[in-house]
Design goal:
321 residues, mainly alpha, hpI Integrase, Chain A, three-stranded antiparallel beta sheet, 4% strand, globular, Integrase_integron-type
């Protein structure tokens, strides 16, 4: 089904609109699921009723999270509203909600224990996740040009929702980052000698054919192997795959006797947010640093902190009784 002429046409339409490869994969996944659910009937023979039934199935039978339901709806809405030019109209669909599980967070000493059990590249990756509040894919996509040591900032490009944002960068990481950059740029020079370079966003490679030689575009965490770009078909070096730091984290949590906790790469981003709020940073600032569209998403961390929120104590604590 993945190589069907219809899905290939949808894929080409997504690329024509300049959407990210990640969005492309997600949309194709949910459109394929929608077609399979309807016994491989062509989407032109389906409509709003079938869309509503499919979304209801996701909520009731598969019990997917509300955000997953929204992503599935976005994919199908693209299929009908833009690709088929058959707008679905107002579906008036009510997303099924489940009680949201509070995120797992680590305190400072626990983060320190995990980082001390790591070395080199792995330690730097998780230091950035915790120190700058990055998602793992955002971290691995960082390029040399995204760091500004003089201002203590880094730019996250094309984050979730296709947004760019600026977040904080700990000065203590500069030596490790510069070492990683030097190693990456040495690798780029070897690649350039073979006519190869880092994978480039969008149509940048066509617009600037020699951009792959520019050190600014080199990934700080490059892959160990060469691959064929899925869109352009050009040989290039992509960034490190996220399975690598996940394996490193698994070993680290085992070494620190935390293997039974639900600790993932995203836990370090959660911990970044809670530590900022605990130290008194206002929630709007934390929202901006995390790149949340809605402050209500950020507010989940206030529930994690409880009475430690924003360094606030109960007024009863100041009353002698």
């Amino acid at each position: 089904m993945g190589s069907s002429p219809f899905l290939n046409e949808v894929r080409a339409s997504i690329r024509l609109r300049g959407m990210s490869l990640r969005t492309e994969k997600t949309y194709i996944y949910w459109i394929r699921n929608f077609i399979r659910y309807n016994n491989y009937r062509h989407p032109r023979d389906l409509g709003p009723d079938e869309v509503m039934t499919f979304l209801g199935y996701l909520a009731a039978k598969r019990q997917v999270a509300i955000n997953t339901q929204k992503v599935a709806l976005n994919a199908i809405a693209f299929l009908y509203n833009q690709f088929l030019d058959r707008p679905l109209g107002d579906l008036n669909f009510t997303f099924a909600t489940r009680p949201r599980r509070l995120p797992e967070v680590l305190n400072i000493s626990e983060v320190g224990a995990i980082l001390r059990s790591m070395k080199g590249r792995d330690k730097l990756i998780f230091s950035l996740l915790f120190g700058s509040g990055l998602r793992i894919t955002e971290c691995l996509r960082l390029r040399v040009k995204d760091f500004n040591f003089s201002q203590g900032t880094l730019v996250v490009r094309d984050g979730k929702g296709g947004k760019d944002r600026v977040t904080i960068l700990s000065p203590s990481l500069q030596p490790a980052i510069e070492t990683a950059m030097s190693e990456a740029l040495a690798l780029q020079q070897l690649d350039n000698a073979k006519g190869i370079g880092p994978s480039l966003p969008g149509v940048l490679g066509k617009k600037y054919p020699s951009a792959y030689r520019d050190p600014a575009w080199m990934f700080v965490f490059p892959s160990t192997s060469i691959c064929t770009h899925p869109i352009t078909g050009i040989l290039c070096r992509h960034h490190l795959h996220d399975s690598v730091p996940r394996k490193a984290l698994k070993h680290a949590t085992a070494d620190t006797n935390m293997r039974h906790r639900r600790i993932s790469c995203h836990t370090f981003r959660h911990s970044f947010a809670t530590e900022l709020l605990k130290s008194g940073r206002d929630i709007r600032t934390v929202q901006e640093l995390l790149g949340h569209y809605d402050v209500r998403t950020t507010q989940i961390y206030t529930h994690v902190l409880g009475n430690q929120f924003a360094g606030t104590s109960s007024p009863l604590d100041f009353l002698a009784v």
